[in-house]
Amino acid sequence: MKDETYHLLIYKKLRDGKLKPDETKLLEDWLRASADHRKTALEIENIWKALTPDEVTPEHMRTQLTALKNRIREQETEAARTHSRVRIRSWIAAAAAILITGIIALRFFDSPNETKNEHLVFMSNDSINQMLRLPDSSVVWFNRNSQLRYSPAFDRGRRVSLVGEAYFQIRHDATRTFVVETGQVETIVQGTSFNVRAVPGEPAMEVTLVEGKVLVKSPETQIGLSPGQSIRYDLANQSFGHVQQASPSSTAWHDELQFRNTPLKDVFAQLTHFHGVRFSIENPVLTACLYTAYFPKNDLKAVLSNIEAVFECKIEKTNDEYRVMGGRCM
Prior knowledge:
CATH architecture of the domain at 130-251: Sandwich
Radius of gyration: 21 Å
Structural class: alpha+beta
Distance between the termini: 31 Å
Oligomer: single chain
Helix content: 25-40%
Mean pLDDT: 78
Largest sheet: 15 strands, mixed
CATH class of the domain at 130-251: Mainly Beta
Low-confidence stretches: 52-56, 67-117
């Protein structure tokens, strides 16, 4: 059976919310058969999320998938023509992996016939600062090769499980705490910004608080942190160290910018978070354009100049925001 048949099954599931039992099994078998199949499924889901329902058709899906390769090829040409001083990391490698979006978001089932154990898994690749927006509008930025899990019932209990490192910006909700599980340790918040590092193979996990308040809890102890503080949990001894002043290196990875097939609306959301500025995109087509670039320093001017060159748009600063005018997807 041709892959396009499975692409259309994914589209049908997104559109209708479900498939027939035989279609569900067919699609699940195809997803399990290959990592490339799962990456393709993710790309289709991202296109669906980026567009309004009346824009999403099977033909549009095919067009968008094909456009990725053309876009990256044109970016290579544009980067060479403008002699940009911004270092763009490996366009050719990106073209070879055109279906990798930076965050793998797929549903996995413990049993094909049961959905009660269903959970969502997000896995970052070898890029940094890949952004995930959770159902409650909280935002997570991932360091390389990290994983986040949460239940589809997330809205009834804001709880996630992290392996790796991530920077969280949690939407405040006085009625529901937000919990990050890392092994035996839980980081409990209501609304704040913090970094959690729980990398496999390292002897300790670490929580660094940037804004707000958090409670870090093990089966034996719980410790509160104030902004600018961090604490480590020794995995061998299963105990906390002393609360310390956070080192600038704790969140240094979050200061770099790297985008891989990231929709421009998410790119501007990240820039808003980092720089406290607003963006007005006057051409709605640009919001879904996918962007791939690497900036060793979070230089707003350099990022905006590169976006102008890649998408042939004009970005002007007014009193309180940046206006993004014109442009087209490549």
